[in-house]
Design a protein that fits this description.
Blueprint: H1 2-24, E1 36-63, E2 66-68, H2 81-84, E3 87-89, E4 92-119, E5 126-127
Antiparallel strand pairs: 1-4, 2-3, 4-5
C-alpha cells in the first residue's frame, strides 16, 4: 500500500526532471534540441617578463710597482714600522673589465587554449554554457 502512494509522486518527479532537462538543451532561436559540443580555439595575450643580459665595460686602475720613499724614514733599515709604511706607487695601469648587466622587459605574448562550446547544428548559435543549452 505504501508503494502505491509513492509511485505517482516518483512519476511526477521524473516527468518534471525530464522536462527541465529537455528545456535546458533546446536552442532559444530555432527550438532544436540537438546541440552538440565542439572545441573553439581562443587566443589570449599574456604578459611575460623577458630577461636579457648585455655586457657593460668598466675601467679601473691597477697599481704598478712601488718604490721606497727615502725621505720618509731616517734609518732606512726596512724593518721598523716607519720603513714598512714608506712605500709609494710609481705607476698605475688602466684595465677594462666586462660586467654582465641584467635587463628585464615585459612583453605581450599570445597564448592559445581550447574552450568547449555548445553549437546548434540548424541555426549555428553557440554558447559556452555548462548545461548544454544554446543561449545567446
Amino acid at each position: 500500500m505504501n508503494i502505491a502512494r509513492k509511485l505517482p509522486t516518483a512519476a511526477v518527479a521524473f516527468a518534471w526532471l525530464a522536462s527541465a532537462t529537455f528545456a535546458a538543451n533546446t536552442c532559444p532561436q530555432c527550438g532544436c534540441c540537438e546541440c552538440k559540443k565542439c572545441c573553439r580555439l581562443v587566443c589570449e595575450m599574456k604578459e611575460v617578463t623577458k630577461t636579457r643580459y648585455c655586457c657593460k665595460c668598466e675601467d679601473f686602475c691597477v697599481l704598478g710597482p712601488s718604490k721606497r720613499c727615502p725621505s720618509c724614514c731616517s734609518c732606512n733599515c726596512g724593518h721598523c714600522t716607519d720603513c714598512r709604511s714608506s712605500w709609494i706607487p710609481t705607476a698605475a695601469y688602466v684595465k677594462t673589465k666586462h660586467v654582465a648587466e641584467k635587463k628585464e622587459e615585459k612583453i605581450q605574448k599570445p597564448t592559445y587554449r581550447f574552450v568547449v562550446e555548445y553549437v546548434c547544428p540548424q541555426c549555428g548559435c553557440a554558447t559556452p554554457q555548462m548545461n548544454g543549452g544554446c543561449a545567446e
